[in-house]
Structures are given as C-alpha cells and as structure tokens.
Amino acid sequence: MLSWALVFLVLALVAAAFGFGGIAGTATSIAQLLFVVFLVLTVVTFVVRALQGRSVS
After folding, report:
1. Distance between CA atoms of residues 46 and 13, nearest Å
2. Is residue 36 within 8 Å of 2, Cβ to Cβ?
3. Domain boundaries, position 46
4. Rounded to 5, what percent of the chain is helix, strand, coil?
5. Which of 12, 13, 29, 36 is most deeply buried (CB count within 10 A of its CB)?
C-alpha cells in the first residue's frame, strides 16, 4: 500500500513539473488518501498486537 502512495506521489511530482495541474492534483489526492489508509492500518495493527500480547485473567 505504501508503494502505491509513493508511485502516485512521484506521478504527481512529474505531472506538476510538466504543468499538468489536473493530473497532478488527482495523483496527489490519491497519494494522500493511500498514505492515510496506510497509517491507520499501521496503528490498528500495533494496537491489536499489543492487546494480544497481554493475557487477560
């Protein structure tokens, strides 16, 4: 998932360099969305693993 965010970030930077505002804006939005999803999934994974590590008596 992070690799997709990086791909769209690079695409947005290249499109911005060539002056394609619409394409750059769309790619930037997709990259931001994927980055946020990646961060949320990472936090959820850490919390779930931390809770599984503790035994409830």
Report:
1. 31
2. no
3. 2-53
4. 90, 0, 10
5. 12
